[in-house]
Design a protein that fits this description.
The protein is α/β, with parallel strands linked by helices. Strand 6, helix 6 and strand 7 form a beta-alpha-beta unit. The protein contains 11 helices and 12 strands. The strands form 2 sheets. It has a 7-stranded parallel sheet.
Amino acid sequence: MPTYAVDDPGDPRIADYVGLTDVALRRRTEPARGLFMAEGERVIRRAVEAGYRVRSVLLEDKWVAGLGDVLDGIDAPVYVAGQPLLEAVTGYPVHRGALAAMDRRPLPPVADLLAGARRVVVLEDLVNHTNVGAVFRSAAAMGVDAVLVTPRCADPLYRRSVKVSMGTVFQVPWTRIASWPGGLAELAAAGFTTAALALADDAVDLGELARVVPERLALLLGTEGDGLSRASSTAADVVVRIPMAGGVDSLNVAAAAAVALWATRPAEGT
């Protein structure tokens, strides 16, 4: 496994890693260039295990040995640099010491993901990458079959989303819905009961939904702050709320997702 020392932040070979903290720049350039970033040993391992192709790796020398088995199995250049150069290139201290530029895959059609699914999560217009990653981690832990994201939802493959998900974004099938709330019709056609998590006068308690969970269930989660759009909650089959105490009216969307997914998880052996 050959490695290549890098000592110039302007080296064109590491251009993929420039300005990782510039969210607006990365939102524009990463999907357009067909790449995403995996950060940290565990995340890089999960991406490789999931079959994503590595374009290149940039890491501190001390991380070479720990990732040796992964690096030996890839056909991509491995660049080694000190922490000052990593920070100069990326824009932040790379505490986990290892980054990999990976190729994206074409997103599958919604119908393909719904075909064999029983539990689906729909993320409507979430803008916080941390929340997106946290929802994916809960989805993986609770055995969700697929995640659908609306056109304006944050990118699940953005570096922060991937990092917070601990790489579980690579194991939960997901795709982007072409139109919303028009996509609700596709869920209905596939036999899904749609449950909107929202504060509404006609909302039922989550426990009521959990008592008799539909065979095919799609949970709809709305954007931070405003929550689900009125169009989505009105079109859903049922509106659900999580009972609160202590004068709290709602939870962070990622926390609400974890609670709702646990409550509606499939029974053992079904």
